[in-house]
């Protein structure tokens, strides 16, 4: 019986892996330029980390986590996002004792039990950054700038940055009161989930995907209109930093973000041509997360997570192609037994000199070897026969122009170093 990959997962085959390598290399370069260093945390963590760090009332914790018991009866969860693990590592490795801020980036698979569709998988991947140890809005602006430079250098132009402030515990307390009063009056027209959230985390009602709920809460009070002085100041400073860097944005007071730990800045980068799953990057500030998962007081952070699959879809929608760099430079075609044997020594010598080269491994006919060379897009083909071998000669063919010339076998490396 055939065994398929689990629902919601995808193989990244050689037809695509070079694109992933390109994106990862580019992301690493940009992060490094901004002073962010890579961190790799485990794929699974204690379930409690996400319950506390992502939040009990979130969709992720309530219905999307891949949680299981291991053979030692421990409650573990495959990471559904990158931030909680990074912050746990920040605390556990005492990074707070270093000079701050701590600027980290990660590249990681994430796991969420969701209904698979285009741009939505059960195993997907994220690029992300976290800057911990300072609550200045300049780091919020830097995270947005980093994401935009990365996306811009990939060739993406049609992007919108939406920013909002979701306040802090101080202003959210009075705002939540206002919100609860407003929502109580709407209780009979809201969906069950909204009615549940109304009490526990009323701001999340704004995020409801049900159209009738949206129609009924058009005049819902929004956090950004009720910020305390400090939050207002933070938001204004963020805007002026973005202005200073010429980064265009608009304020979208309805962004609340799915995760519980956000405070103050929340932002999204949206591709204007991706349809339903249009959010490529989401992030914000999480003053309080470090404490919430058992770390010392006073370490706030800001970061983003970017969906790599969605990024690839966005690139496709924009007709931006990533070229496959894995082209074989030289394919050796042989004629005769002696040539076949000797070609292995020649191949080894080329490879020792860092020239990408290959030859037939299937006993193909002379003609079929040529055909294969064409198929793998080799830049050059070199033909070696038993007779030529004796004369230290081979025929070199440029596969693009069709040009041919005779070359010395003993001089191949020098010959190619000049050509490639
Ligand atoms: P959505 O509203 O689309 O479910 P989200 O708010 O759950 O997104 P975040 O938790 O902010 O998303 O994750 C950051 C990014 O990861 C998203 O902007 C998206 O690009 C990507 N992402 C999230 N869930 C998935 C998924 N199931 N499959 C592929 N990419 C995803
Ligand atoms: Mg989601």
UniProtKB/TrEMBL annotation:
InterPro entries for the chain: aa-tRNA-synth_II, aa-tRNA-synth_II/BPL/LPL, Anticodon-bd, Anticodon-bd_dom_sf, His-tRNA-ligase, HisRS-like_core, HisRS/HisZ, HisRS_anticodon
Residues reported to bind L-histidine: 81-83, 112, 126, 130, 257, 261-262
Keywords: Aminoacyl-tRNA synthetase, ATP-binding, Cytoplasm, Ligase, Nucleotide-binding, Protein biosynthesis
Catalytic activity from the UniProt record: tRNA(His) + L-histidine + ATP = L-histidyl-tRNA(His) + AMP + diphosphate + H(+)
Pfam families per UniProt: HGTP_anticodon, tRNA-synt_His
Gene Ontology terms, MF aspect: ATP binding; catalytic activity, acting on a protein; histidine-tRNA ligase activity; transferase activity
Enzyme class label: ligase
Location in or out of the cell: Cytoplasm
Protein EC: 6.1.1.21
Superkingdom as given in the UniProt entry: Bacteria
Family from the record: Belongs to the class-II aminoacyl-tRNA synthetase family.
Protein name: Histidine--tRNA ligase
Native source organism of the sequence: Peptostreptococcus anaerobius 653-L
